[in-house]
Amino acid sequence: MFSGSIPALVTPMRGETIDEEAFAALVDWQIAEGSGALVPCGTTGESATMTIAEHDRVVALCVRQAAGRVPVIAGCGSNDSRVALAHMQAAEAAGADAALVVLPYYNRPNQAGLLAHFRFLADRSPLPIILYNVPGRTVTDIAVETMGELARLPTIVGVKDASGRVERVTAQRLACGTDFCQLSGNDDMALGFMAMGGVGCISVTANVAPRLCADFQAACLQGRWADALAFQDRLYPLHAALFSDASPGPVKYALSRVRSGFGPDLRLPMTPPSDASRRAVDAALEWAGLL
After folding, report:
1. pLDDT digits (tens, 9 = 90+) for 20-66
2. How does strand 181-184 pair with strand 200-203?
3. How far is it, in rounded angstroms, from Cα 135 to Cα 140?
4. Which of 15, 88, 105, 243 registers the highest number of CB atoms within 10 A of its CB?
5. Looking at the DSSP assignment, which residues form a beta bridge with residue 98?
6. Catalytic amino acids?
7. Does the N-terminal peptide bond of residue 272 adopt cis geometry, omega within 30 degrees of 0?
8. What is the pTM of this model?
9. What would the pLDDT profile of 127-168 be if each residue is shown by its tens digit?
């Protein structure tokens, strides 16, 4: 259903205000550069510090600007099942193609709670769901067996896997079936992830280097592994630099370097990246040929 390079879009801001004009321009650029789909209001989009109204507004803006040119996978996660459902209902009304739903964070449900959470959402919304497993942020980790059970539900169609365990691609492929859409959530591991059966990456780096990331993904999907490895070597320093300080600080700084007039503003508690992080980003941009 979804494949290729899929940026987890940043949300441009001017001070405390979402910069809707800059966001629309970012959407257009991403599509022109070959991104296969778009994810508004994920972690990189600073959804944690948006009001519910802002969150749903950004999803609607993304859908409107994309205008059917590529699918929109709306970030809809919450640690409150009812809030997650409300986001899914708003995303469906806006015309989004799917929902990216992170495992509930902070309250740390057990596997039975994860099953109940996602069944609750699947029973009440027709929107396709991509599970988002990122234990480094949520602490909770979905078991392969739990994912296999959820994959039997017709609207649970895939996973964004940021577990950091590439071997799980094969385990999940066996548990969930070959049609289950496995998307990497780690840019630096995407090459191995794709070789083991992945079909794309929900990417931070694609915000800054959409064409390179799209070409990398195309090489993987076409089995051109030598080309993919060359892209990996070119992009790897950028993958690392964009997490050299708290995200999305470095990626917003990187965008300010490659996109004229792009503002790097963040919302508290996020603060600008350190001098060392900015130097790492600049060096990585030069290595990738983006400066």
Report:
1. 999 999 999 999 999 999 999 999 999 999 999 999 999 999 999 99
2. parallel
3. 5
4. 88
5. 73
6. 132, 160
7. no
8. 0.97
9. 999 999 999 999 999 999 999 999 999 999 999 999 999 999
